[in-house]
Write a structure and sequence with these properties.
homotrimer; Udp-n-acetylmuramoylalanyl-d-glutamate--2,6- Diaminopimelate Ligase, Chain: A, domain 1; UDP N-Acetylglucosamine Acyltransferase, domain 1; 2 domains; 11-stranded mixed beta sheet; 10-stranded parallel beta sheet
């Protein structure tokens, strides 16, 4: 089970209840009333525990797992070890996510406002907010109900935060409007000046950054990620975006809804990213580009030009993924064919 | 206009006053006494508002802009929509920067020292400094006048900070000497131990890091950037450098004056960078290199060798930009010529 | 000497004492009783000071150094300037590290717990811990003796920290167990949710992250690095690992003992890294990989597949280092041979 020093376990639940929660179906002779007490990783789960198989890399672990029950795609059902109860789901990972949420629900806020927080008298807090020690909430900030403001986080002047939003430890937010059900992990920096200056022989001239950061509902932002405010236009993160750790989002960038931005990638100023774009880890997008909806950008890709909707690209500079793979194969072949003669 | 929850608008100004401020010239029948109330982005500006055209990508927006006035390079003057007043400038972006600074001036410090800051009794603060709640200022730190120390920032033992310098929220500074008019954005880490250890079969042996970080005047440092202190020599950032977010600067690195370092790039230990070098986003420089003055390093470039002054380089490993582009073209052509035969 | 505002100098030591400390041998007519007062960089050291020569790039500085004494590999002994005393060591850098530690010892903790720290009454602190202003220590956290908790750092509910461990300023730790003699630099984020979600047409479904972060003894973690907790399994950092600044370590990653992870590199979820693996700066490892013991991964490398023990790899995608260098040479040659015809 999850370490009780850190996690509070709910349940138990009957197998058929879990099937309902996860949108899965009981398979074969799995007993609907069997009680499941916890979830666990496939190589550690035992009696009373439920696990899942999602990545086929873990089929060997599945075949010898001691889990009492497992969520699995129907096509692998016949590889289950004897005695394991199966929940069948087309997307076992999603089913597991829903079931794990039932076992380990997010605790409601308590409404506890630490006397060691520094809240400006003009700021407003909705009902049932938790504010931790060392949090600083500035003038005219407006925080809606059921929010959590983590220890030593700083909410700047005029910032607005929607309901059920959670700000981790040590963050700083300024010049921004944050939606509902947003999760911001520790160390995130939102709303600071973008990288805006004009060249001058006497030294660079700072360009006042007069826009904001707008973060729509249901966004998740990873630890130590930075999102600069707009220079005049706003920087906008669409609803349902998932942004990983150490990502850089420059001024005036707009992300559509449901984008996924993996760790350490960076998006340069004024680039417009469509809905449901996937950006791999350590990818970099130049400025002033348009990335079409549904595009998939491979990890480490260097994007210098606009990307059509639905395109899959990779490489530095970016090209269609298929071409990039071909180049890789071709280069390997050329080196092999030319042998040691290229080594001098 | 900029969101008044976050920004305080100055002005209005007559067009000829703005021309003077921006070093621009009134064009044609633009009325010198026309009052301008604000600046705005080219696609949103209207009556009473001034915008600018800098990137030719936005020429279509310029041609249909409703802005009352626009700063523009003389060569695009004849593409302005009817009725728009023009300010002509060779560098419209710089002119805009100066004018926007007039509309949205940086407010002077107030001299307010929060009772919730933790200031060691041996630290000294110049006149008219702002110190926010949760700031921690250590023994013998010396901060000159008109500085801002952001909420929950930590100024370590003995640190010195020059006049008119601004430290954002949640920063930590140790073992460093900071100049005048420096702007440090939230979450910046300056002066911690560099990555110094000797290999040993029994475990790595830490090498005491006995240098400092010296930051000269008029430097800007982006959010969550890290600058390690020197190992014996100092780590030095020259006057007027602009460093973006999430940049890594290792021990003993020296940057000359006026360098620009874009987000997520990294400079390894003891590399010496000349004056006015431009380093693109996600570029990486190996250690112990010398980068000549005025060199331009493309985004994502991997620099393994010294770079001559004025060189333009790109690619991994780095090579002259022209060669890198040729390789890219050549590879694309080879793949195209060989067709599907490389795909097996 | 090191700036006394930041460093406390010990010593002096006789040359033969220093030879013992560093595991080095006196050379020629170096006087064993000569007193050395300090260490200094090779280009600044003078009378009474000891320096070292490690990187052959600095041989010219060695040959004209005014240092009274220098630690050097025996093969360079005959290039020393007249009058310089030599300490011979096979690994001069390690010898220097040990000697510099003697001159600049880490000061013991003082046992001072700031009244401006926020320590939950259920937390326990061992003897002689230093807790700085603004530190927040949560419920049931357990911190062993001789630890330092930096200003404005946050130690979450239930976190355990071993002896002699140092947490810098502005860090946040949750859901983690930290070993002995661990050094965590400022702004590090440990234990937050990993990037775990399932795809769903109605929006991504968060997967509860039920594991921990386990950090073994003698680990060093650089500034603003992020280490996510496991999703069910733990994220594990082996004993003696050195991790640089701005590194991303995703959920369920395991690092073996003695790994070195250079700045801005990233390791994706569930990848298993063996003992003593070296990962260069800005390298990226995909998820669910196995990296064999002793592998060396070049800077900027993009690792998409498992890596055998002891392999040396580079490039994007990763390949044996020798092949990658050949490809680089081949490409340069092809471009040169084809001349300007590829430039159209």
């Amino acid at each position: 089970m999850a370490d009780p020093r850190f996690f509070s376990l709910g349940g138990p639940f009957a197998l058929n209840v879990l099937a309902d929660i996860g949108g899965a179906k009981l398979h074969g002779d799995a007993h609907p009333d069997a009680m499941i007490e916890d979830v666990a990783p496939i190589d550690r789960a035992g009696p009373g525990q439920l696990t899942f198989l999602d990545n086929t890399k873990y089929l060997p672990e599945f075949e010898k797992s001691a889990a009492q029950a497992c969520i699995v795609n129907p096509r692998f059902a016949d590889r289950a070890p004897a005695g394991m109860s199966l929940l069948l789901a087309d997307d076992p990972y999603k089913a597991y996510a829903l079931i794990a949420q039932a076992f380990y629900p997010v605790l409601p806020t308590t409404g506890q406002i630490s006397p060691a927080a520094h809240i400006d008298e003009t700021a407003t807090l909705g009902l049932q907010c938790d504010v931790s020690p060392g949090a600083v909430i500035g003038e005219n900030a407006r925080i809606a109900e059921n929010c959590r403001i983590g220890p030593n986080s700083v909410i700047g002047l005029g910032v607005q935060i929607g309901e059920d939003t959670s700000i981790g430890a040590g963050c700083s937010l300024s010049h921004c409007i944050i939606g509902n059900r947003v999760t911001i992990h520790p160390g995130v920096r939102i709303g600071q000046d973008g990288f805006g200056f004009a060249i001058d022989p006497q030294g660079y001239v700072k360009v006042p950054q007069l826009g904001r950061v707008i973060i729509h509902d249901d966004v998740e932002i990873g630890a130590n990620t930075t999102i600069d405010r707009g220079s005049g236009p706003d920087t906008v993160i669409g609803a349902g975006c998932w942004i990983d750790n150490l990502v850089q989002i420059a001024h005036n960038v707009t992300l559509g809804d449901g984008c996924v931005v993996v760790a350490q990638s960076g998006i340069s100023g004024s680039t417009k990213v469509g809905n449901h774009v996937m950006i791999g880890g350590q990818a970099g997008l130049a400025g002033h580009l348009t990335i079409g909806a549904g595009a998939q950008i491979a990890g480490k890709c260097g994007v210098m030009r606009d990307v059509p909707a639905g395109a899959k690209i990779g490489g530095i500079p970016a090209q269609p993924l298929r071409d990039w793979h071909r180049q890789t194969v071709l280069l390997s072949r050329l080196v092999r064919d030319k042998g040691t003669s290229t080594d001098d």
